[in-house]
Model the fold of this input.
Amino acid sequence: MSGFQTGFSSQAFQVAAAQGRTALVGYLPVGYPDVPRSLEALAALCGGPDDPGVDLVEVGLPYSDPMMDGPVIQAAGTLALERGVRTKDVFTAVEAVRAAGKPAVVMTYWNLVDRYGVKAFARDLAAAGGAGLITPDLIPDEAGDWLEASDEHGLDRIFLVAPSSSDERIVSTVAACRGWVYATAVMGVTGTRAESAPAAPALVARIRRLCPNALVGVGLGISNGRQAAEVAAFADAAIVGSAFLKPLLAVDGGDFARGLADLAAVRRDLAQGVRTAG
Done:
């Protein structure tokens, strides 16, 4: 494997950098509160001409054994599965994000891709306009089929590194990435936290020392604009998930329009945060 490769999804990072700021990446799962309304929520992440949205959307694919997800994402994913979401719905969600004017990557556990068929998933993701795939439980050493399929269809592949990753593991993981590398700022499951993870700046600094050309997104724990600004001071992207889901879960079965309005308020706060760091 050669050194780090830029890709379709990294264009969002580059556009933000040209504006003198860090990119904002937003996650929501397809299928919550149901498939049609999840498409509305994903579009709401994208903002509008005078309402800054996220720069890149992570479309989550709910899974029955979400070992790395925190309670907020687990709750939404469980409800989505109970309400009938299917793997194929993720491609419709990607199309909706692209129609809203933003690039989209899919985040999923590998078993779902494997069961769908690696080549078929890559083909259908590319046909929907998807930029690539984040695979939290797949390491490059075991990703031969995905490396081949992603090359065939021009898709980005985003692998994860953590504070516990050795220097050798960071180098090999970044070399296998295309687009950007996902730095998990904390050990453990996802979810908002009151304070930013103290290990994050050191991990990003280590990635930059070992792989100077890599683009690095930091996720797990960002809940507000202040934390987004802190991450924006040292990373190429701030990644947010649970904070966007909480407003929707708060009105589950109730006033969805209010949930969307509250989600938009969270988005504006986070968008202002990544701009504050300058």
Observations:
- The chain has one domain: 10-157+227-273.
- Strands lie at 23-29, 56-60, 104-107, 132-134, 156-158, 160-161, 181-184, 216-219, 237-240.
